[in-house]
Write a structure and sequence with these properties.
By secondary structure, the protein is of the alpha/beta class. The chain has 13 helices and 16 strands. A hairpin with a 2-residue loop joins strand 9 (about 260-265) and strand 10.
């Protein structure tokens, strides 16, 4: 018997540039900017994958958007417990749903780091009676280690766990979103949750970039600046390394937002800072564009964590259907020969992956599969390497 809890507002602020979804005010602002809830859809992907591998299991969930809607969307049989059904949900509703599903063999929850904290609170209250849990990644950041690599991977891991039980502890990490929006990144460890064993299929806790020598990051920035081609637009994703590119160009780019610059002879101009997904799409449509994205340390994600503004339709517009738009091309240029995606990472960050590939979880599994192959990674001034990238949903269960 598997339980399902969905935080329907998780990730709501990502594509519209709000860098989180905590609080009713932020959620209202996200909806006003045209945000579309996606947590329920990602939960549906997970349970559809799970039921395809284990068709005889019992899926138990709560009413409405907190689980029932996802089960219906996945077209799988389900049972309800008396919880959920609210039009507007809160952290207390998440905790109540977890308590109502305490008797399951495994509890799946869809959300982000804030949701993981709510689950942790309920698990602590349940004590020894609490079931093991597994996160379906649906938040903006997802720093905690209790999430599967992707929704489909969550379904695979859950199916395997029911056949071969075994658990391990995974950390719950969150940060203050108000400080985060001001560029102050200070993750805090809140505790750990018991999850299915099998670290390779879990995202792991995000690792910081503090060990990287400043000269290395600045060298990456100089290399990007030297490779810019006049007339081409460059999308700079979030992160300290891409922010260094902005500094090298003398532009007021953002640390945690997505910015667009256009190269000109002898420099570059800031076209727009901290854009939403809709704004980004309009800025790249019909223009020669290069995506310049950094790697999340310890996890390896290039797409789908903190940069949801780079949506499937933006990717399709920039990469032109993808094949040939990621790898290959002229090694002397950022975007020569069809290279529409360039990744930035220090050698230390790549070494920290232990040979694991870079990951894409854009929200479109087919597009992620097309992205699979190799991508150029700039690692320093006049230094680059070719590194494997794959769909997060297929790395361990392809």
């Amino acid at each position: 018997m598997v339980g399902l809890v969905v935080n329907p507002v998780a990730g709501l602020g990502g594509a519209v540039g709000l860098k989180g979804s905590d609080g009713a005010g932020v959620q209202r602002a996200a909806l006003a900017r045209g945000a579309e809830p996606k947590a329920g859809r990602r939960a549906a992907q997970a349970v559809a994958t799970l039921l395809a591998r284990r068709p005889g299991l019992r899926l138990v969930t709560v009413a409405g958007a907190m689980g029932e809607d996802s089960a219906r969307a996945a077209a799988v049989p389900y049972e309800l417990v008396p919880s959920g059904g609210q039009d507007v949900t809160t952290a207390a509703d998440t905790r109540a749903a977890v308590m109502a599903l305490a008797d399951v063999d495994l509890l799946l929850f869809a959300g982000g780091d804030g949701t993981a904290r709510d689950v942790l609170d309920a698990v602590r209250e349940l004590g020894a009676a609490a079931p093991p849990v597994l996160g379906i990644p649906a938040g903006v950041k997802v720093y905690s280690g209790c999430f599967a690599l992707s929704p489909a991977t969550a379904g695979f891991v859950a199916a395997d766990f029911l056949t071969r039980p075994g658990t391990a502890e995974a950390e719950v990490v969150d940060l203050d979103e108000e400080r985060y929006r001001r560029g102050l990144v200070s993750p805090r460890l809140y505790g750990s949750l018991r999850v299915p064993a099998g670290r390779a299929a879990l995202s792991g806790r995000k690792a910081g970039s503090s060990d990287a020598a400043p000269a290395t990051v600045e060298g990456i920035a100089r290399e990007i600046a030297a490779r810019l081609r006049p007339g081409v637009r460059y999308v700079l994703g979030p992160g300290a390394t891409t922010a260094a590119v902005g500094r090298e160009l003398g532009l007021a780019t953002t640390l945690l937002g997505v910015d667009v610059v256009e190269a000109r002879t002898g420099g570059a101009d800031l076209v727009a800072a901290d854009v939403t997904e809709g704004e980004l799409f309009e800025l790249v449509r019909g223009r020669e564009t290069v995506l310049v994205l950094s790697v999340i340390g310890g996890q390896g994600f290039v797409l789908g964590r903190g940069n949801q503004q780079v949506s499937p339709r933006v990717l399709d517009e920039v990469l032109g259907g993808v094949p040939g738009g990621v790898s290959g091309g002229d090694p002397s240029g950022v975007s020569g020969g069809g290279d529409g995606l360039v990744v930035l990472a220090t050698q230390q960050k790549l070494a920290g992956l232990g040979g694991r590939p870079l990951l894409a979880d854009s929200g479109d599994q087919e597009l992620d599969r097309k992205l699979a192959g190799h991508v150029r990674v700039i690692t320093g001034y006049r230094e680059s390497t070719i590194y494997r990238i794959c769909a997060a949903s297929e790395e361990f269960y392809g």
